Amino acid sequence: MPDKGEKEFLAVARIVKPQGRRGEVAAEILTDFPERFARVQRTYLERPGQEPRPVELENAWPHKGRVVLKFAGVDSINQANSLRGLHVLVPRQEKMPLPAHHYYVWELRGCRVVAEQEGKSKEVGTVTDVEPTGGVDLLHVAPQGRPRDEVLIPLAQDICKRIDTEAKTIVIDPPEDLLELND
Fold it and tell me: Into which CATH architecture does domain 3-94 fall?
């Protein structure tokens, strides 16, 4: 997605193919909250490399692990086929609320990681990604001055003491040798 779209919108689906004869499309679900489709009316469609354009969502329903979407003004198989590969976006401010101590990956990317131990602060690096592990997720951190290297830090409450997504800062209290293990 283009930088502007990445900052202002969240991708919630990717259109895979026409579904039915009245302009409906089947879409791969890209959100952890598929129930959002029942409430959303205003969405945006984005073709890679182009600006997102607003489109009204008339109806949505789950079907075989995907979501079927009916957009206003799309009333034929040919019109639906022209949407193949487009991303369905919603404004970022319409993100679904998460429980305490849960974060969207995009909120953590770009956060500065600072280690605080024994009253001293040390800049560790910047979060480049979050890896789900089935247990405790791992922060991928590009170390200060070594952007090609990577430090893996468990996203555990006993290690990540403060996460401020507005200030883009994560304060950690790493166990002994955690940062040295990654050297």
Answer: Beta Barrel (2.40)
Cβ neighbourhood burial of 58 (10 Å; 0-12, 13-18, 19+): middle
Which residue has 């592990």 as its token pair? 133
Amino acid present at 50? Q
C-alpha distances (whole Å) from 42 to each of 2, 59, 145, 153 are: 20, 11, 44, 38
- Quickly list DSSP for 75-97: -SHHHHHTTTTPEEEEEGGGPPP
Res 2 pLDDT > 60: no
Query: What is the pTM (predicted TM-score) of this model?
Result: 0.69
- CATH 2.40.160.20 at 105-181, yes or no: no
